[in-house]
Amino acid sequence: MLNTTLASIMLNNGVIRSKHMNEKLLAYGAIGAAIVIMATIVFPFWNLIPTMVTEKVRVVYVEAGKCAAETNDGYIIRGIPCDAKIGDNITATYDVKVKDREHKI
Fold first, then answer.
1. What is the number of other CB atoms lying within 10 angstroms of the CB of residue 94?
2. What secondary structure letter does DSSP report for 76?
3. What number of other Cβ atoms are within 10 A of residue 70's Cβ?
4. Pick from 94, 8, 98: which is nearest to 52 by CA?
5. Residues 43-67: what's their mean pLDDT?
6. Which of 2, 25, 75, 92 is deepest in the core (most CB within 10 A)?
7. CA angle 8, 14, 16 (to 5 degrees)
8. Are the C-beta atoms of 60 and 102 separated by less than 8 Å?
9. How confident is the model at residue 7 (pLDDT cuts 50, 70, 90)?
10. What is the dihedral of CA 36, 38, 40, 43, to 10 degrees?
């Protein structure tokens, strides 16, 4: 009779131990899923990667070797190193995502 009770206690401990292990895995999985969802919806990290565009722009302001130029759609790009005069057309590279964010504001 002693052997039967010891076997059932060991079996019960094994079941309880695996139940706790499954609960821990479920909790870790839920936390991991929440982090992935928050990272992609709340803070889309791909906005940190610039999308550079090069286009021909018209210089509207010049000071100390730096220009401000206007794109065809009226966006002003500041801080372009250049030696052009006001009204000249130059080629400039800028981040389109910054432009889109400014248009949304």
1. 21
2. E
3. 15
4. 94
5. 87
6. 92
7. 100
8. no
9. very low
10. -140
Q: What angle do CA 60, 66, 67 make, to 5 degrees?
A: 15
What is the predicted pLDDT for the residue at 29? 92
**Strand pairing category for 76-81 and 89-95:** unpaired
Residue reference for tokens 């990290």: 45
> Among all chains, which residue has been given the structure tokens 């500041």?
78
Burial class (CB in 10 A: 0-12, 13-18, 19+), 81: exposed
Per domain, the residue ranges of the chain are 2-45, 50-104
- What is the DSSP secondary structure assignment for residue 6, as one 8-state letter? H
pTM: 0.54
CA distance linking residue 59 with residue 88, whole number of Å: 6
- Tokens 């094994």 correspond to what residue? 14
Q: What share of residues in the chain are helix, strand, coil (percent, to 5)?
A: 50, 30, 20
* SS3 call for 74: coil
CATH number belonging to domain 50-104? 2.40.50
